Amino acid sequence: MTDVTTQLKQALSSALTGAFGEDFADADPLLNPAGNPKFGDYQANLAMPLGKKLGRPPREVAQAVVDQLEVGSSSGGGVIEKVEIAGPGFINLHLSSAALAESAHAMLGDARLGVAPIDNKQTVVVDYSSPNVAKEMHVGHLRSTVIGDAIARVLAFHGHDVIRQNHLGDWGTQFGMLIEHLDEAGQIEQESLGDLTKLYKESKARFDAEPEFAERAKQRVVALQGGDEKTLAAWRKLVAQSQDYFASVYDRMGVLLEPGDIRGESFYNDKLPGVVDRLKADGALRVSQGAGVVPVEGFKDKDGNALPMIVQKSDGGYLYATTDLAAALFRADELDADRLVYVVGAPQRQHFDMLFATLRRYGWVKDGVRLDFVPFGQVLGEDGRIFRTRSGDTVRLIDLIDEAESRAVAVCKEKNPELTGEEAENVGRAVGLGALKYADLSSDRIKDYRFSWQRMLALDGNTAPYLINAYVRVHGIFRKGGIDFDAFTSGHVQVEDSNEKALVLKLMQFGPTVESVADSLEPHRLCNYLYELASGFHKFFEHCPVLRSDVPDDVRRGRLALCKLVALTLRQGLELLGIEVVERM
Ligand code: ARG
């Protein structure tokens, strides 16, 4: 099946060829849904740039295209019913109701809702979550995990081969103090190492306060790097315990990351000398105050001095950047990636800019490989300052999940006394987690956002509960009518009423929206879309009765089909965001 947008694009492209010849077959028709039904359903804005190129008035260009378009349902079920040229040369397209109805019907009959997998699929590596061993996952990791998961889901649905990579911070000098402290406390042999965050705090405090301990911790780093068995065993235990913890968080969050996706910093250890050698061979390496650095054009520190990327410390140790160079090589060469995506907080922008510049400058990744840094802003408290607990500590991710769920359970119990205790628990958990994720996904990721329980759990507005509620409402209609939602196939969508038409046009935008998120890696576009879809549904339902006794049978079935299509689209869209729906709440 081809959806209406594709049909329109095809019609415009053959009109373009008809008017101006084969060279114009691939010209972008600049097709968009019209902002106002007055101007038709879609608008094609190609005449302006094309006029410039051809040196002809845009209106004339528009007319030449329009003359070639097949218009009118008389021409055998064509998609365009009417066309007008407006203003400087906008082509306003009115679609035929029959074609729209047909498109909606086909979408309903397709498990992928009319979104065909992309033809030229790519291998995309998505680096996300990437927390640090022995450190608590905080709200920053919430963002990376939630946004990264949505992006991975969207790319996979779009048809790409997605390789998720959890670039765990599992190596570095901090392990010296952790292991030294464990050993001195006689805990190194223990089965469980206890609370790792506590361990981190304690050893950090000693490291800062006791110079002798700091010295021994440094010796430990040497022992770890030298492969001392006892030290290595302790390191492995620390990593394993952290991984178990992260796995439990991912499981609670319902994210797709699995233990097999972990390829931590330590994985690249034995590749780091090779990275530095290669930089040397490429003439990229300089020595500055004993350290190995790579100058990167265009980067300056705050005093205006050239700022290089440091890849080797004067004591021979390697750095975060060295590991990321190794990881990028591994992903491009071994994993054969066409696109590298990094979902990491905005403060690391400079690191990634320098990394990408170096990879390009020395041809370490092929020109065709796309590099995407996907930054996000900070989570702020309701007071607009950095989000903290009342006692001033950083907020633990797991505590947020607990609170989201318990708050939503309470709301469910209060709002719907018909739910049994167990149902309310299940529904509340899904809605609470969904609300937490959605709050993070629905704002433009680059902006900071204010964390507000009240706003994210509200049944009104651009929230998960609002979207889930629209899904619940459809199920409510089917339940009330005694119709089995899954089995229902007997309706053919009709497009008679303007609210039906608006809703169908919105449904047709699902595929293009998925496509735009796969390109821009901005999940909030999908959120906005789903919000508009849900609002359109509520409006439709206000004006177009479904079950009322005076509604003719075929109209009722057509509207039920439309309701079902809306529900399926909401469910699929939310699934792409990593959010589960419920059938009642
Ligand atoms: N572990 C790092 C942090 O918590 C994030 C790693 C991001 N990925 C990367 N390839 N550098 O800040």
Radius of gyration: 28 Å
Instruction: Kindly report the CATH topology of the domain at 4-95.
Output: Gyrase A, domain 2
Shape verdict: globular
What count of helical segments does DSSP give? 20
Strand content: 5-15%
Content-based structural category: alpha/beta
Largest sheet, in brief, is: 4 strands, antiparallel
How widely separated are the two ends? 35 Å
**CATH class categorisation of the domain at 4-95:** Alpha Beta
What is the number of E strands?
Answer: 13
Low-confidence stretches: none
Task: Give a verbal description of the structure.
- With 585 residues, this protein is of the alpha/beta class.
- Among the domains are: 4-95, Arginyl tRNA synthetase N-terminal domain (Gyrase A, domain 2), CATH 3.30.1360.70; 174-258, no CATH class.
- It contains 20 helices and 13 strands.
- It has helices spanning 4-20, 47-54, 58-68, 97-108, 139-157, 174-184, 196-209, 211-225, 229-253, 272-281, 320-334, 349-361, 397-415, 421-442, 453-457, 464-480, 498-508, 510-520, 524-543, 553-576, and strands at residues 31-33, 42-44, 80-86, 90-95, 123-127, 161-165, 286-288, 291-294, 309-312, 339-345, 370-376, 379-380, 449-450.
- The protein has a four-stranded antiparallel sheet with strand order 1-2-4-3. A four-stranded parallel sheet has the order 6-5-10-11, sandwiched between helices. A three-stranded antiparallel sheet has the order 7-8-9.
- β5, α5 (139-157) and β6 (161-165) form a beta-alpha-beta unit.
- The longest helix is centred in the middle third of the chain and has 25 residues, at 229-253.
- It is globular and about 85 Å long.
- It starts with a helix and ends in a 9-residue tail after the last helix.
- The mean pLDDT is 94.
- The site of arginine has 10 residues, from α11 and β10.
